[in-house]
Design a protein that fits this description.
The complex is a heterodimer of chains A (1002) and B (183). Chain A is α+β, with helices and mostly antiparallel strands. Helices cover 19% and strands 38% of the residues of chain A. Chain B is flat, with a radius of gyration of 21 Å. Classes of the chains: A alpha+beta (1002), B mainly alpha (183). At the A-B interface, α1, α3, β2 and β3 of A face α1 and β1 of B.
């Protein structure tokens, strides 16, 4: 008992002493200032910084004197690296010195942000990711996830997904301080709209507003499912309705709708204020509402304010000036408003109508007049377009400015451009001439260029590429080019913050400038590592082999963007985010992050269409070798599987069905074969039945492998080996019903194709060239039953004659030469029908309808070996091809409608030796002559290329013998029957042909 | 038993003596800017020096100083983003003079600096920043701040566009504070 008491007393004494000591200790601030630092340790010992960066940031060092300001400085430097969220420095006595401990909490960064679950559309996974506001590589802060979750939930609710369930999964990667975040969404059923509550002063009935929203199916009156797009579209549609009623100041507001879980419907409150009806009219000139709506922006902006009305007056004035009313003035007046009706009146004073008949440039020596005219807005009156020319004071000022800028950018710093307008030019009333006089001044040149500040990079090789070199014109434009050149070099080498300053010392006597370029190189960023995230099904090496940036390389945004571009070209990623982790941190060695969102692997496309064409020449109707206009429905189905085996390969199944063609094909594509950019390998098998040529149906079963290689930006090379079984079936000409042509033939052909495309715009070229060369060899060595060599060369060039006039030409030359002809085959039949050249049509010789050029069936005389056959006149194709096309393309009406005058010449010839330039057809069995056609066309510009209508007049279309009876008649006519039905009829292909299609002819 | 007591006492003494002292730490983060406890204490001392008052290191005073520094960090970020110019050194020297005179000359001034635990460079940096802020406010908002430009949060009229901007900047910037460390 006594012992216990002593123990209790002892413990109480110790605790009392402890409390006393603790109190004393905590009340004192130990003074470590000036004491020797015995150790510096980190807690935790593993730090995110590289050893060199850690050493650079750490001011407190063992053996040094402790100073509080060093501790503060250490915190600052460590925090500035961006790798820490919190830092505490503590110290404690250790012998005579002090032990310092740096306690850190690392900063996390946003990594891969992905979405899993049944999210496809409204919203899309990418929209959900965008809604999180989590940015790859940025610091991840406390509360980020909660905010992201709130935003995602709001987005889901805006899309009617009120019953969605959302889970957030995170995956930490401590080695790179990165937090990957996955949003797992179960969307549940989508809510429907319910009857909205309409408030305000709508001036429209509730039914009209509801109908405008499109939130309810018409007729069946069932409310549709909620999507954000549909909601905003509905509000826009109400505004559109007001606008169509002339209520341009209408306002429609809506708050987030309320959701009723019981009915699973949302109720929106739509606050609508119709506002007054706005009437815009013009007085003083006849102006249609269409023109007013086009030029007065209150219609487009759905708002009425002073700025827009002034802009409308200016636009109307410019419009009238472009119509020749060069002195037109326009102002406006808002008539006293009626509560429900407001009138805005544009007062137009047109003045005299003029015609700009002459534009003259004087004083220009350095640039040709054409060079300057190409940059000018002023335009003399034309025959079809701009019948009064293009003229206004604004245009004159603009042209003076652009000419002046051109001269200044080429070293004429003192250039001045003046203008003079002459009315009643050459005594003709209301004709106007404009003279622009250029005083070029003196050409300033560069006397010397020096570069300072460049120590890390050697810019010696750049000096020859600079625009401003000794003796060259001195201009701000050249300096700007030099600046870009130098900074691009720095950025490629990882100096993303490099900056450029310059100054010029002008020598007024010699008109020269000594340029001093100064580079501030800034920080040199290095890649610490490349981190790939978000790759799930793709094989990592598909991506890694494109990663030409590795640890230790300069961190160049330009190089990284190029890698990103190449990765996109694989076609297997819908989104590739590229970021630098901790971009604002002071460390120069950074993680580079690529975050991927893989594309959907399956694609399905179903198409329905129709073809309007000359269809004819069936076995039941042999009277129309040219065919007759007909309608052919067309159905298509494409099923694709992308990113096969995670290798980026793709397979696709295609089907096409129409009365002219049935096609089923299987394609396998291996892009970027052997990791060579621009090299693709394709394996194709297909079954095709087509009736492009009236004479027969072609049945083709083919397997082919091809390798394409992009040689340069304009050049492509393609090597192809195809093995096919072709058969001409449904042959309607008895003469061809011989085994050699109607039996299936196997063709093995190796071909090469070279394409050079230097056109400025492939859909509507105005400059450049387009050349192709296709060479093929079918031989028994390739398992072919027919041997022939085939060459087809095409060359097209486009020349801009004037600003608006383009001359285009294309020449095609082709030949098929058979060899090793089997003994049982007539040399004339050595080339199977489907392998021959055919010509004619909208993209070929426009003097013929589709595939109607060349040799035609002339029948066969009766011989001992053959009963003979009557001529049908159906095209047979040939072994040689020559087509030359020339076009003059010019503007016709406005900016979108242009015209074409063309001349096509050429034909398909039965063999190369029979090619001829003569223009006369010797007889109706002679088709080896040059057919000429002239014509005109109209083009309407659209985003997908011009819509084309061509009308051709064939000057010397071929005459031929046709058959007027039935197929049965034709067959019974063999053997020289003298039946009336067996008599062939002399015919001639039509002189007039017309074509309607999309895209230029060539 | 005595041995046990002695051991206990020795152990507890060792724990107490081995207890480390926090020398400095982060007390607030404003975007990418850090505010340390030492910054807060310097501000407290600087304010006291300029006001010729006593150095108050109680939690409330420190929290007030921390809030001033947060405002300054927001302003600094805006000044850097807008590439506003810092005050010229000559203007700083002009601002130092009246402070020096208020302390009755160079010797007393130096002595006061030592007493408040700040250096002349600290003071110059502080005054330079004050002038820069006044310039910024005048240039950006077209009105000057009366008195101490660095105590923006003390200004009552919230209608002042500068104060309104500051409120907005506070809302838009992620600010993390650790007031428990201000002891």
């Amino acid at each position: 008992m006594t012992g216990d008491l002593i123990l209790v007393r002892s413990i109480l004494a110790v605790v009392g002493l402890f409390l006393l000591i603790t109190t004393v200790a905590s009340g004192q601030v130990q003074d470590f200032e000036g004491k020797t630092i015995s150790t510096v340790s980190f807690e935790p010992p593993d730090q995110p910084l590289m050893p060199s960066a850690l050493a650079a940031a750490q001011v407190l060092r063992s053996g040094a004197r402790f100073r509080r300001e060093d501790a503060a400085s250490t915190i600052d430097k460590l925090f500035a690296t961006g790798r820490y969220e919190d830092i505490v420095v503590d110290a404690q006595a250790a012998g005579n010195g002090v032990a310092v401990r740096i306690i850190t909490t690392v900063q996390w960064f946003v990594g891969h942000v992905g979405v899993k679950g049944d999210v496809r559309q409204s919203p899309t996974p990418n929209e959900l990711i965008e809604a999180t506001h989590l940015v790859l590589g940025q610091p991840f802060k406390e509360g980020d996830l909660a905010e992201a979750e709130t935003r995602v939930r709001r987005l889901l609710e805006r899309n009617g997904l009120y019953q969605s369930k959302l889970q957030i999964e995170t995956n930490d990667r401590p080695d790179i301080q990165q937090r990957d975040i996955q949003f797992v969404v179960a969307t549940g059923s989508r809510a429907r709209y319910g009857p909205p509550v309409i408030t305000g002063d709508p001036k429209l009935s509730d039914d009209t507003i509801i109908h405008a929203t499109g939130w309810r199916w018409p007729i069946i009156k069932k409310w549709r499912r909620v999507t954000e797009l549909r909601t905003s579209g509905g509000i826009s549609a109400i505004l559109g309705k007001y606008q169509s009623d002339g209520r341009l100041t209408a306002e429609v507001l809506t708050d987030p709708p309320t959701y009723d879980p019981a009915t699973r419907q949302v109720t929106s409150v739509i606050e609508a204020h119709g506002g007054p009806e706005i009437e815009v009219k013009a007085v003083g000139a006849k102006v249609s509402q269409r023109v007013l709506k086009r030029y007065v922006p209150i219609f487009a902006e759905s708002a009425v304010n002073q700025d827009l009305l002034v802009l409308g007056a200016t636009s109307l004035r410019d419009h009238f000036q472009s119509q020749g009313y060069f002195q037109a003035t326009v102002d406006f007046e808002e008539l006293p408003p009626d509560p429900d009706h407001q009138v805005i009146e544009y007062n137009v004073n047109l003045g005299q109508r003029y015609k700009l008949v002459h534009v003259e440039l004087k004083g220009n020596k350095f640039f040709t007049t054409q060079d300057l005219r190409d940059r000018m807005f002023l335009l003399e009156s034309g025959w079809i377009r701009e019948r009064h020319g293009r003229f206004s004071d604004v245009f004159i000022d603009r042209d003076k400015q652009s000419i002046s800028d051109l001269y200044k950018s080429n070293g004429f710093r003192d250039v001045s451009v003046t203008s003079a307008v002459q009315n009643d030019y050459k005594g003709k009333k209301n004709d106007v001439a404009v003279t622009l006089t250029v005083d070029e001044g003196v050409l300033w040149t560069v006397s010397k260029v020096s570069i300072t500040g460049a120590s890390a990079l050697n810019l010696a090789d750049l000096t020859t590429q600079l625009s401003s070199i000794e003796g060259q014109p001195y201009s701000d434009t050249s300096v700007a080019l030099d600046r870009n050149l130098i900074l691009t070099r720095y950025q490629k080498e990882g100096y993303s913050s490099a900056s450029f300053q310059w100054r010029a010392q002008l020598d007024l006597e010699h008109h020269s400038a000594a340029l001093e370029y100064h580079v501030d190189e800034g920080r040199h960023l290095i890649v610490r590592d490349v981190i790939l995230t978000g790759i799930e099904t793709t094989s990592p090496d598909v991506v890694e082999r494109l990663m030409t940036v590795k640890s230790g390389d300069p961190l160049s945004q330009l190089n990284l963007s190029e890698i990103q571009r190449q990765l996109y070209q694989l076609g297997i990623f819908s989104r590739i985010n590229l970021a630098v982790q901790d971009p604002d941190g002071s460390t120069d060695v950074k993680h580079v992050l690529f975050d991927f969102q893989e594309s959907s692997r399956y694609t399905l496309a179903v198409g329905i269409g129709a073809e309007l064409a000359r269809i004819g020449g069936t076995t039941s109707d042999i009277t129309q070798p040219e065919g007759s206009a007909g309608f052919s429905p067309r159905f298509s189905l494409d099923l694709g599987r992308q990113n096969l085996w995670g290798r980026g390969h793709a397979i696709s199944l295609r089907g096409r069905v129409s009365s002219l063609e049935q096609l089923a094909s299987f394609n396998y594509l291996a892009p970027r074969f052997n990791n060579v950019e621009g090299r693709n390998v394709t394996f194709t098998t297909q079954y095709q039945v087509s009736r492009d040529v009236r004479t027969f149906s072609s049945r083709r079963q083919e397997a082919a492998i091809q390798v394409s290689q992009k040689l340069s930006k304009p050049s492509n090379l393609l090597l192809r080996f195809a093995y096919r079984r072709v058969q001409a079936s449904q042959i309607i000409i008895p003469r061809l019903l011989v085994p050699q042509l109607s039996q299936p033939i196997r063709i093995g052909i190796l071909s090469g194709n070279y394409v050079q495309d230097r056109r400025d715009d492939p859909t509507n070229a105005t400059r450049g060239v387009y050349n192709t060369l296709d060479v093929g060899l079918a031989s028994s060595a390739f398992g072919s039953q027919r041997s022939f060599a085939r060459v087809l060369a095409r060359t097209a060039s486009y020349h801009k004659l004037t600003r608006n006039l383009v001359f285009a030409r294309e020449t095609s030359l082709g030949a098929i030469a058979p060899f090793h002809i089997p003994s049982n085959v007539d040399p004339g039949d050595a080339i199977p029908l489907p392998e021959r050249f055919y010509g004619g049509g909208s993209s070929s010789h426009r003097g013929f309808q589709e595939n109607q050029a060349g040799p035609r069936d002339i029948g066969a005389p009766q011989t001992a070996a053959s009963p003979g056959a009557a001529a049908t006149g159906f095209p047979l194709g040939g072994s040689a091809l020559f087509v030359n096309k020339s076009e003059l393309r010019f503007p016709l009406l406005g900016d979108n409608i242009s015209g074409v005058l063309f001349h096509d010449m050429g034909n398909i010839f039965d063999k190369v030796s029979n090619m001829s330039f003569r223009v006369h057809q010797h007889s109706d069995t002679d088709f080896n002559y040059m057919v000429h056609a002239v014509g005109l066309g109209v083009r309407y510009r659209t985003p997908v290329g011009p819509i084309r209508l061509d009308l051709a007049y064939s000057i010397n279309p071929p005459r031929y013998q046709g058959f007027g009876g039935t197929t049965q008649d034709l067959l019974s006519c063999a053997g020289g029957s003298m039946l009336a039905a067996c008599q062939t009829q002399g015919r001639r292909l039509s002189h007039i042909q017309f074509f309607f299609s999309i895209g230029q002819s060539f | 038993m005595r041995t046990v007591s002695q051991l206990l006492i020795a152990g507890l003494l060792a724990v107490v003596i081995a207890q480390a002292e926090v020398v400095d730490s982060l007390v607030a983060v404003v975007g990418s800017a850090a505010i340390k406890h030492s910054d807060v204490l310097r501000d407290v001392r600087m304010t006291a020096f300029l006001n010729k008052g006593s150095v108050k290191t109680d939690q409330k005073s420190q929290e007030e100083a921390m809030n001033r520094l947060i405002d300054q960090a927001l302003i600094r970020q805006e000044i850097e983003a807008g590439a506003y110019e810092l005050a010229a050194p000559s203007r700083v020297e002009e601002a130092v003079k009246p402070v020096q005179e208020s302390y009755g000359g160079a010797v007393a001034f130096q002595s006061a600096l030592q007493r408040y635990g700040i250096t002349a460079d600290d003071l110059r940096a502080y005054l330079r920043w004050q002038i820069t802020v006044v310039d910024f406010v005048e240039l950006r908002f077209g009105n000057g701040l009366a008195g101490d430009a660095t105590t923006a949060s003390d200004h009552a009229p919230t209608a002042d566009p500068f104060i309104a901007w500051l409120d907005s900047a506070r809302k838009n910037q992620r600010i993390i504070t650790k007031p428990e460390r201000l002891k």
